[in-house]
Amino acid sequence: MRESVALYKMYHPVAEVEAAETHGQCWHGETIDEGLDLCRYQLIEPLFREYLPKKGRILEAGCGPGRWVFYLFPDKHFDAVISLGVVEHFQEGPQRAFKEARRILKDGGFYFVTVPLQNLNRLLIANPLKELKRWHQKRKGVGYAFEEYRYTRREFRNLLHEAGFEIIREAPDDYKSSKNMGLYVDFPFLRHSSKKWELNPAGKIVGSIFRSLTPWAACAGVMCISRKKV
Fold first, then answer.
1. What is the dihedral of CA 130, 184, 24, 218, to 10 degrees?
2. Alpha helices (H) along the chain
3. 215 CB contacts (<8 Å, ≥6 apart)?
């Protein structure tokens, strides 16, 4: 990763790194049916219907370290690659993942990627509060570990361009209606007491205020749909 680009790093207490709420769209505690049901609430669902090739090979990339399938596929093998909430967790940066996606994509193939967004809420409220908490906890001896990068839209577009991809479209990555992944992750006190990704009454009010400004203000992430440049 270029040293001149200071990307925002997110840290969590070492003891909590495996907690479900630290992993965005984490599937901990969800059945397959529950996970499938959530798809209809996601803002990015229509984009798959619009841009995902109806025929051809499609790879969903990002399960474990990949040690068993490293370079398993030949060059220019897939018509599309999907990577949802994966590349932000590589502390060395997403470049190797981009390079491999480009290698296995056919010329003009589609690359669907989502990453956490440095949105307005995080820049002005959530990040400063988390940094203050981390400073206080570290003074008490609590160890912290890297969790993920959070990108601005421009930062992530630039990384994809540099990796040889042409941006076709970008969109907010979150849920519709009363669910909100971004606020749910950033502010536990706004969560519904029993429904995952659902906000309590106060959270719904906060969410509606942010959405009235722009759909990007408090959404969890950004999806970039790009094509492999020839």
1. -80
2. 32-39, 45-51, 95-104, 120-121, 127-139, 153-162, 181-186, 201-213
3. 43, 172
Contact 64, 126 (CB under 8 A): no
DSSP label at residue 138? H
Calpha distance 79→58 (Å, rounded): 6
The 10 Å Cβ neighbour count of residue 4 is 5
- Give the pTM: 0.87
DSSP state of 7: P
The label of the residue with tokens 């999907």 reads: 82
pLDDT profile of the chain (230 residues), mean per 10 = 68 73 51 81 94 94 66 90 94 95 97 97 96 94 93 97 97 90 95 92 95 96 96
Closest by CA position to 222, among listed 153, 124, 123: 153
CATH of 8-118+146-178+220-228, one of 3.40.50.1010, 3.40.50.150, 3.30.70.100, 3.90.1170.50: 3.40.50.150
**Calpha distance 47→131 (Å, rounded):** 34
